[in-house]
Amino acid sequence: MINLSDALASRRRHIDYCAGFGLAALGAVLAASAAEPLSAAAQPSGSDGEAQRRAPTEAQTEATITSVSETEADGDSPDPVARHQAALQQVRSRLQALRAGIADQVLYRKALRAELRQSEQDIDDLARANRQLTAMAVSQQQALNETAERLRQTRERLAQQRAALAELMRAAHVRGHGGYLRLLLDDEALRRKTRAFGYYRVLADARAARVARIELLRQDLAALEREGRDEAARLQRLAARQEQTRLRLSDARRARAAVLADLERALAEDRGRVAALAADAEALHALIERLKREAEIRDEIELDQTEISERRGQLTWPIAPAQLVRPFGKDRGSGALHADGVLLAAAPGAEVRAVHHGRVAYADWLRGFGMLIVIDHGGGYMTLYGHNQTLLKEVGEWVASGDLIALSGNSGGAERDALYFAIRHQGQALDPSDWCRVRAG
């Protein structure tokens, strides 16, 4: 089994290595790979000079693989599952509070929209009433103008009537002046004058009655004029008050609209926070499930005290059925990159499984090996799985024996679909056929 103190020591060695040489070596490998063909295995064996030309690149690749064997992920906290579950609970509590706040904001927005709609209706009603009042005021003013015109005409007629009456009375006075003695001596003249005076009296009475009616009409018209002016003033005051009310409603509507806009922005921000928190909660949940799975694997490792060194000849091949395409050590003298491992026939997408429990130390593309995953089994042992099309584990993850870790392919420039499989101990290549239970054909 993997001892925690050994793992921590390995981690410290890896940190020192990376600080000094490891990252530079990996950079050299990648830089060298840019100038070389994708797969050394795909090159013809060629002459010794060609093998010597490939040797530096292979040495750099070997240095990278060797450095991987010292790689360990950072140690977890004593109880990472509980810690992340507490964080998840906090996120869920915040989500619940945010969603409750959003529900309240939605209700408030609904009320604001109703008030805004009512305000707009009130403003429309007031505007319509103001238009009606304005029309009434205009009509009232026209009536006042007509009344004033009638009053002016009536006054002119009254003045004419008064002038005519005065002229009549003056003429009657002139005619009757100095004829008093003649009236006494002449009966016929007296009778004529009496009839004339009677006529004048009737005429004067009629004229006086007419003048009285004209005066009454003038007074009525004056009263109407005063009432019209009062009504016009009242309408103007009412229109002014309604205009003030309309302006206040307009201000209130603008204020509500501003509050509603702020509320919409706040709702959008809160919904964004809810989405982010939901994503965080989902990620935390996935992390917790992964940690639980790793804890189960660690428990399984604790229960399985068997070291990989004790399972020589008992391991199961990483792919089934296992069929050797290139055995261990073939073309080793020519410097072939895969001579330190074996190539197993594999259909595209075939399942690749871990041969023993351990921790993923490398999971990435590497020149000559394509998508490569390396598992550290402790005690200086590691297994390598190359030319995959998909890697299903990440660096630092624990795996149990038989766990699915990759899907096979032909990445890294392999000539055919095949799985590269190798076992190393302290950097030395071991023949996988001596370690796996069912021998490959």
TrEMBL record:
InterPro entries reported in the protein's UniProt record: Cell_wall_metabolism_enzyme (IPR050570), Dup_hybrid_motif (IPR011055), M23ase_b-sheet_dom (IPR016047)
Positions with biased composition (Polar residues): 58-70
UniProt domain M23ase beta-sheet core: residue ranges: 340-432
Region of interest: Disordered: 40-81
Keyword Aminoacyl-tRNA synthetase appears in the UniProt entry: no
Keywords per UniProt: Coiled coil
Sections of the chain in a coiled coil: 109-171, 207-294
A GO term for molecular function: metalloendopeptidase activity
UniProt protein name: M23ase beta-sheet core domain-containing protein
Organism: Halochromatium glycolicum
